[in-house]
Amino acid sequence: MARIREATKRDLDAIVSLWKQLMQFHTDMDPIFQISLHAARVFRKFAAKCVRNRGVLTLVAEEDGGIIAFCNTTVEMNPPVFPPGRYGMISDLVVDGRYRRRGIGAQLVEAVKLWLLKQGITSLRVRAASVNPVAMSFWRSRGFKDIVATLSQDITPGAMPGGGQII
Predict the structure, then answer these.
(1) How many domains does the chain have?
(2) CA distance 4 to 93
């Protein structure tokens, strides 16, 4: 079983490395996830802010003397068109490919739930790439359900009715 703990700034290199692994995994399934040349630097700045922010929970899992997974969770507010309320949002959960299917992701999710419950928050959501069947299966097997889908389409003028002329 992995050791779960809150991330520190010393963990940023490992967190960025895991994030890049996830992005490559997604890019292999769909080029829409191709990252820019400076994406790792941008993500590192984001991760550093998360680690410093007490309102964000960034967890890492350690095993075999290294970091093998991380999870990033924020507390969000319902938009004003819905009843007031807060919910947890897992924006990133990555387990190194060599350590998957060993319950490490589940350990991270359970730690997130405990953190949220201590704050009186009883709803948890996650952002997951729908092109990633491993992730979708993981989340659904834990009782998560689809609530919103983001669909994408590349558009080109030549493929549009009328040759793409702007009206």
Answers:
(1) 1
(2) 13
pLDDT of residue 88: 95
Q: HEC states along 49-90? A: HHHHCCCEEEEEEEECCEEEEEEEEEEEECCCCCCCCEEEEE
3-state secondary structure at position 94:
strand
* Crossing angle between the packed helical segments 12-29 and 39-52, to the nearest 10 degrees: 130
Q: Dig out the tokens for 134 from the structure.
A: 């491993």
Q: Looking at residue 85, which CATH number applies to its domain?
A: 3.40.630.30
Helix (H, G, I), strand (E, B) or coil at 134: helix
Q: Which domain holds residue 61?
A: 3-164
**pLDDT one-digit tens code per residue, 34-66:** 888 899 999 999 999 999 998 899 999 999 889
- Residue 32, CB-side half-sphere exposure with 13 Å CA sphere: 10
Quick one: DSSP state of residue 162? G
pLDDT in tens, 152-165: 888 887 666 665 56
**Of residues 96, 150, 95, 85, the one with CA closest to residue 124:** 85
